């Protein structure tokens, strides 16, 4: 279940010229993205913004997703493994689009099922809407008679943000883990 809409995010900014050619879908020129604070299960804050040290890979999904989300996070695990020790120099962040069901603990536990260093975050509805808008992510809850069992259609791209907090590339469903791995190597 996914929505392939990036019109608001890109605004026609995908191009073919840059100092580095990414294997993902390149954003040229790179676009600054704001950071957002999420409360972790421990009560501490996690900020999605640039830390000046690590590139960040972000994905927006939900823990009850039957296909897109587990495939994407599995690709991340393969990319991290392929990077060897350099994989520890990347922040992998899963942002839930379903905060009604995915508490901070649920989102983080889900992300850690794929790798113990992955971070899963959940925020209030306002914070979730703001970060989704900043990345041009959309979602829609599918109609269901049961208020606790439902699917959510959502944008199915992973986003690569460099150390400076600039969105430099995104990866569509089905691209696999190799393009992400190559691009992370170039940033590390």
Would you kindly provide a written description of the structure presented here, covering whatever features stand out?
Helix content is 27%, strand content 27%. It is an alpha/beta fold. The strands form three sheets. A six-stranded mixed β-sheet has the order 2-11-10-5-6-7, sandwiched between helices. A three-stranded mixed β-sheet has the order 1-9-8, with no helix packed on it. Helix 2 (68-83) crosses helix 5 (178-187). The model is unreliable at 1-18 (pLDDT under 50).
Which CATH class is shown?
Alpha Beta
DSSP helical segment count: 5
**Helix and strand pattern:** EHEEEEHEHEHEEEEH
Mean pLDDT: 88
Q: What is the number of E strands?
A: 11
Give the C-alpha Rg: 15 Å
The helicity comes to 25-40%
CATH architecture: 3-Layer(aba) Sandwich
- Low-pLDDT residue spans: 1-18
Write the CATH fold name: Glutaredoxin
What would the keywords be for this entry?
disordered N terminus; globular; single chain; three-stranded mixed β-sheet; Glutaredoxin; six-stranded mixed β-sheet; 27% helix; alpha/beta; 188 residues
